[in-house]
Design a protein that fits this description.
Helix content is 36%, strand content 27%. The relative contact order is 0.30. The protein has a three-stranded mixed β-sheet, covered by helices on one side. It is α+β, with helices and mostly antiparallel strands. The protein is built from two helices and three strands; from the N terminus they run H-E-H-E-E. It is globular, with a radius of gyration of 13 Å. The mean pLDDT is 91.
């Protein structure tokens, strides 16, 4: 859970650096190690509930994977950002 919070903090920092916000995110792909809907589903729902009313979600995909680049990494997000 701590890694997912940090990932989204890092995303906000990156968006700020680009001078854009979540409305510029065209596509988001999450990769989670050993994905289990029964365990991860409520955590994801809790995170989504923190978005403001009317929040427009980009095209989103969540993929369960066996591992990521390093064994201590459990969650990763890739974004496609549209810049005007």
């Amino acid at each position: 859970i701590a890694q997912s919070h940090q990932v989204f903090k890092n995303i906000e920092i990156a968006l700020d650096e680009l001078g854009v916000d979540h409305r510029n995110v065209i596509k988001m792909t999450g990769y989670i190690v050993n994905y289990d809907p029964a365990y991860h589903g409520p955590i994801i729902a809790e995170g989504l509930a923190q978005n403001p009313p009317g929040y427009e979600y980009p095209a989103t995909m969540l993929l369960g994977v066996d591992s990521l680049a390093r064994s201590e990494f459990l969650f990763e997000v890739g974004l496609i950002i549209g810049l005007e």
